[in-house]
Structures are given as C-alpha cells and as structure tokens.
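Journal club prep, shared notes

We agreed each person brings one worked example of a sequence with its structure written out as tokens. Mine is Phosphatidylinositol-binding clathrin assembly protein. I'm keeping it raw so we can talk through how to read the token line rather than staring at a rendered picture. Sequence first:
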Amino acid sequence: MSGQSITDRIAAAQHSMTGSAISKAVCKATTHEVSGPKKKHLDYLIHCTNEMNVNIPQLADTLFERTANSSWVVVFKALITTHHLMMYGNERFIQYLASRNTLFNLNNFLDKGALQGYDMSTFIRRYSRYLNEKAMSYRLVAVDFTKMKRGIDGVMRTMNTEKLIKTLPIIQNQLDALLDFQANPNELTNGVINSAFMLLFKDSIRLFAAYNEGVINLLEKYFDMKKNQCKDALDIYKKFLYRMTKLSEFLKVAEQVGIDQGDIPDLSQAPSSLLEALEQHLASLEGKKIKELNADTRASTLSSAVSSLSSTGMSFSRMDEKEKQQALEEEQARLQALKVTDFVSLFAFFFFFNHFVYMYDFISPAGFDALGDLLKPTIPTHTAPPPPPPQMAIHPGGKLLANDLDSSLANLVGSECPNMRPKMHWSQPGEKKLTGGQNWQNKTMSTTQWGPAPMMGQMGGVPVMAPQPMMYNQPVLRPTNPFAPMPGAQVSYPVFVHSYALNNTFATDELYVENVIKHVNVVCF
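Then the structure, token by token:
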C-alpha cells in the first residue's frame, strides 16, 4: 500500500468542490500513503487553529471522523495530526478536546485486512489512550505540562505544597500512558509509527522535565511538611524513581532508531541515601523509635539530591533550545525566500510595465507628444482661413483612417519609426503647390483628385451636402507590400512588439530586436 488511493483523491476533489479547505487539508494529511503526514498540511492546520474565524469543533470532529476509518494508516495518521495540533497549535484546540466527555474510543480497533494491520493496531490503541490522558490532564489542571514555564521561577518550582501533591500524580498518569507505548526498535518499521514515536519522544522530554522540577520542589519542602503530606510525598518520590528507570529504557529505544544523541538528556538519579533520610523522617513523625540523621547530614544529603536532579533538568532544556533554534532558522529561511519572491515579482512587474509602455508608444498615434498633447504645425503670424479637416473613412476593422494612405501610415508608425515616415514638410497655409494639397506635400508623391467639388444639392426637397473632395496619394515606385523591408534599409532601434515581448521576457536587447524583425511584418526603415 503506497501512494494516495483513489478514495483519497476523490475525497480531496469533493472538498475542493465544496470549498472546505480544512476538510481537504485533513484528508490530505490522513491519506492511505504509508508515511507521516506532510509538513505543509500540518502547518496549514496549525495556521487554522490560530485563526479566530475557524470553527475548532468542526476541525476536531473532522479528525475524529477519520479515526472511524477501517485502515490503520488513516487512523494512525489522524491521531498523529491531532497530537501535532495539541503540541504546536493554538491552545484553543486542546481546550476543546479537554471539554469533551469522550475523545478517541479505539480500545477495540483492529485492522485485519492489511499486512501490518495487527501490529499497528496495537500501537494505535496505546497511542489513543495517551492522547485521551493528555487531554484529561489539561482538563484537570487547565495547563499543558509540556508547555508550562520551567526553571527556578517556573510553575512547578513555585507551587505550594498542597497543590503540588495534587498535581504530581496527574503528571505521573500522563507519563505512564506515554511510556506504555512500548515500541521496540524492530517495530518502528514505517514512516507512520516513526512520526508518532517522534512526537511521543518530544512529549516525554518536556513532561518529565516538569515532573522533575515538581519533585525538586517537593524535596525542598519535605522536612517542613505535616505527617500526611510527608507520607504522600514519599510515595510520589518512590514512583518518580521507578518512572525515571522506565524513561531511560524509552530513551534507549530513541537512540537506537537514529535520534541525535545530543537530543537525549542524561538522567542523574539522586543518591540512595536521600530515600533513607526521607523514610527516617516519616518514621519519626509517626512516633516510631528510629535513629534519625542529624540536621547537617540531612541538609547535605538533600542538597546533593537537588543538585543531581537540577543537572538532569538542565539536560532536558537542550532539546528545547535546539528546537527553538531550528524553528528560528526555518522562519529566517522562509522570510528570505519571501524576499526573493517579492524581488522577482517586482522585477517582472516593471519589465512587463516597461514593454507595455513601449507597446503603447508603438501603436499610439504619432500625432501626440510625451505628455499626450496634440502636435500641431507652426502657425504663421499672418491670418489665413484654416484648411478644411481631412476626410476620414471607416476601416472595415472599425478604426478611423485618413483618406490619405501615407498619412494613415505615418499616424500608425509615429515617432518610434522615424525612417518609415515619408519625407514631408509643412507648407504655409494658402500656398498653392502643383504637386500637393493645401497643407503638405510629398517630394516623391503625385496627387490625383477624385470626386467633384463640394456643392449643395436637393433630394426630395431636403438639402444635402455633396461629398467632400477626397485626396488619394498615389505613391511612385511603391513595393507591393508597403510594410516589406526595402533593400539597404537601416533598422530603427529599438523596436518593441508586445506580443513577442510576452513570449520572450528575458531576451537581451540585441537578440530581442533581431527576433522581432523575424517574427513581425512591421519594421522601421
């Protein structure tokens, strides 16, 4: 069984169509693929827990629904995803889990249809019990022991005696459920159970660190407690020593499956003489006749025990510091990647904007200057009647073209292709030229007048204006294709064509001009 199943793909497509991004992410994180949930899906779900408009109960219920699947892969990955959100998601998620009466009811889960179904089903049952206990611990004390503040001024070190004696058994129960996972190195054979074991390993370090600090606080207060409190405290300390032994076995498995040695803390037990001193003090409070250690010896033994347990607590902090540093490096890498992406986007924007400007200049009428004002010929000082406006014709494509073909061509090409414009000059208004019209003349053009002079007529009693005279310049020795290159012509540089620019974004200027000449019919001479 490898890769996403057809069922996974269909479910993801259904969630895409319905617009449920959270359900799709949960489906993607809990596919039938025999590997741990992908980081991108877990990160997205963590982000969802931090959004105030996200329905946390709906998110949790979606994960619960996935645990009803018959495949051990889907169920195991649903538990892993839930555990990941409890560890790294917003506290609202674990608060909701703690408020439920029941969480995972997988005590009878068994997948008989898969190759590893029997073995993995055992670990699923144990794993679900730990997650239930983790949520129950939060329900009892309203705090996650793996996230509480540690150190001399931490929560467990500053807790009063009465509350401390009630809190430490809750940590013990949660740690017992974790250590009951009992996976051997030979049983960690796939990416799914390895992902679960890694989360359990991180929880065990932080949970025992809080447990260790609570015991230190308990020992420091022990000789000032009442008899019943001393009795409870002594029982807690004995259980603590037993759990330290079990944790060391759990950490040996972690070391054998490839977890870095630097992430595994060193467990330093208190001297056995401390236990003897504690028992003697309780016996004296119960009225038993027993020789108790003097105050100096007792203080020395206690100081030595606290020092050993404190060194253990410091070793637990190394993993937290390493994980924080790793998270910081990942965040810096994401910011750097974001900066690079923004730079590329900005560069692309200005590049296309630049080509758009050149395209606009290329296709815009040549009769406008850089500020958009209409260019006009120099007006002489003497007065003369203004020439009539040139007659315009409607092009079949819907554009207005001058009746004069050379004027249309000049307006189309404009200042971007100065060598393509016919050589022309402006004449004084009213000046008569034999070879041109009233306003301008072409040195190489001959002019033929078509149509009668304007006159008034009458049609059906309604006066109408006769057609205005239309002037057509007939070029001399013009090639068949007016836009084809002429022999010996110089290309006006640069030429920018928008359609080609979009397909050749990063071409150099020289290569760009060369390819433009090859791909378009309009060139400048």
